[in-house]
Every structure is written in structure tokens, then in C-alpha cells.
Amino acid sequence: MILTKLFSRRWWFVTLFVILGVTVLARLGFWQLERLEERRAFNQLVVERWDQAPFDVNQEALPAELDVLGYRRVEVTGSFDYANQIALKNQNRDSGPGVGLVTPLILPDGRAILVSRGWIPLDQSKPEQWAQFNEATGEATIIGMLQQSQLLPGAKPPDSPQTEWFRVDIEAIQQQLPYPLMPAFLAQLPEPGRGYSDLPYREVPFELSEGNHFSYALQWFMFAAVLGGGYLPYMHFQEQRRQRLKTLAENGGIDPDASIDVPADVPAMT
Q1: Does residue 127 lie within any of the structural domains?
Q2: Domain containing 76: what range?
Q3: C-alpha angle 162/167/173, rounded to 5°?
Q4: In this structure, what CATH number is given to the domain that contains residue 148?
Q5: Same-domain status, 47 and 70
Q6: Model confidence pLDDT, tens digit, residues 10-53
Q7: Beta bridge partners of 185
Q8: This prediction's pTM
Q9: What's the domain count of the chain?
Q10: Is residue 256 part of a domain?
């Protein structure tokens, strides 16, 4: 009997509202599951590219679209030019403020690529202190991940050579270097066995996870179940209440559609 009242004159609007609400909540749940599948597909792509042999910059030309090398390791062999090293300002970590050291690596053919070698604390960031963080002094093979030049539209390059920069703007930095720079820079990855606290501090610049999409989906489905599953008991309760009021009205002239203010000292009807 209660089901026949779902679309009665009294309840049809509320029923449509509940159906719409359940539909929207369930759709949000399925949307989170779709996001989860997208994240899993992305993670699989990252794993596949990461497992490929490193792209050798010395042997192969960079592709026109650098995105094809996204999440793939890249290796390059050359010699660091510490004399033209620069620092990226405002590179903060949980352990405190600091800077990032960026050093040109000169390839045997005369080209160079900027290498972001890692983070150092602010209290050791003066140019005269950088020598303690020099690593390879001869030819070395560096493995990292290619990064796009960090451009700021409309920014004016400095008029004189700078040792401190806010971003790796390759075109602007090129003006103070005597050799041609490659159009991307390399974020150096930590070597196997490198200590967590070793400086410059380096880390893999991404983390694979599935996020909270599954738990969010469960929440939306739960909300849909609570709204849809709780509607019938609520309507049943209201109909029983209305029936009791109707009985009172027939016996004492109370309007069944009117609200009743019951004094606090009057016991509730059972």
C-alpha cells in the first residue's frame, strides 16, 4: 500500500526529488570509479615508460614533442661546469627553506644541458659555499627526467648574469652562457644507494598511487543508499502520523493537515 502513495498528489514531488538525488549521488559514485580507472591507466603508462631503457641524449636527438619522454628516464654524459652554476630561490621542503642547485653539463659535442642537481638548505646556499656540493669533477653519466623550460609570459630577462633565479627559464639563462643549451633541462634522479639525507637532496618527482577515488565512490553510494533506503520508512512514518491525526480529527475536530503543538506535560500517544 505504501508503494502506491509514492506518486500520490501528496508525495509525487518529494518522490521525484528523492529519485533525482539518488541518481545524482550514484552518478558521482560511478564518476569516482571512472576516475580510479583513469588513474590506474595512468599509473600503468608511467610504469611502462619508467621500465624502458633510459633515453640517451648523447646518441639520440630530442623529439619535437617532449611529452613523449614524460616519465621516462633520460641519461646524458658530459662534464659539469660548476663555474656557471646557478641556484633556484624559494625551494622549500619540510625540513626548511633552501635553494636548488642547477649546473650546466657540457656534452662532448659542445652542447650543454642544465641539470637540476637537488636541494640544499638555506644556511648553506651562498655561492661561496657551493663547492662543497660538487660531485663529479670529470666526465659523468647523469640519469634524470626531462623538464620543460619554466617560462613566465611577459617576464623580462635580467640585463646582467645572475647566480640566483626563480625558475629555469632556459632562453633567459642562455644569455649568460658561452655554449648552446638544449631546450629542456634535466631533473637529476637519486642514484642507487644514495642516502636520504645526502646533499644535494634528490628525489623521484612523482609518486604512484590510486588516490582516494575508491573510498569517495563508496561514500557517494552510501549517501545514495541512505537517501533512497530511508525515504520509504520516512514516508511510512508520516502516513501513519497523518492517519492518527485524521482519527483524532474525526473524534475531536482536529484538522489532520494542521501541525499540532503538544504541551510538554502531555504524554505522547502510543
Answers
A1: yes
A2: 55-188
A3: 45
A4: 2.40.50
A5: no
A6: 777 788 888 899 999 999 999 999 999 999 999 999 999 999 99
A7: 147
A8: 0.74
A9: 2
A10: no
